[in-house]
User: Fold this.
Amino acid sequence: MNKSKEYKDKITLAVTGASGSGYFLRLLKSLVDAEIQIYLLLSDAAKIVLKTEENEDWPEDVNDLNTYLQNKYQSKEQQIIALTAKDWFSPVASGSSAPDKMIICPCSCGTLASIAQGVSNNLIERSADVILKERGQLIIMPRETPFSTIHLRNMLTLSELGVTVMPLAPGFYHQPKTIEDLQDFMVARVLDHLKIPHKIGKRWCE
Ligand SMILES: Cc1cc2nc3c(=O)[nH]c(=O)nc-3n(C[C@H](O)[C@H](O)[C@H](O)COP(=O)(O)O)c2cc1C
Assistant:
């Protein structure tokens, strides 16, 4: 698991078709600002949810998408590397080259189930499988309500394997006034878990 000298770290960031794509957008920007290199994986359902919830209509072609994201986030060339669902020759698909950290935000219950069963049918599932077999750090951020017993069993399976299950359920003790305040609460917690320094949101007792 190698690290580029140009960046402080590298990470795989996946977004799936659960509600809460605004959390993902905020997290992506924070990782860019923290000078992290990001391998970006989007499911087809994630693109639909991004359009529905955030009016984000991203290019279908992956090369166009990379150019679009570089402009949108003012990121360095190759800082955000978007990949396609079947890009089996990409670094994230193999333990010899993948980052040792991955976040799935938001994580659909479908992707949660596939990862818990080791299905590896697309690059998101395969990347998570690689993190599990290499014993890296996997953070999944599921969103559904209520959770069925199947969802809960799948979360338990992953938790027992060392995965951090961080449901998209922000606290209210910081008295949020805006949606961004709520998004920041969750983004700050993820960055804390990854030990990425940040100044987002207030901490408990601050
Ligand atoms: C607008 C919208 C919101 C959705 N919200 C959720 C959700 O909160 N949680 C969830 O598990 N699935 C949700 N779904 C359903 C998933 O997108 C669907 O199960 C999909 O197959 C997941 O595929 P993926 O895991 O490859 O992204 C939503 C779908 C749409 C279109």
Q: What stands out?
A: The longest strand covers residues 9-15. The radius of gyration is 16 Å. The chain has one domain: 9-193. The chain has seven helices and six strands.
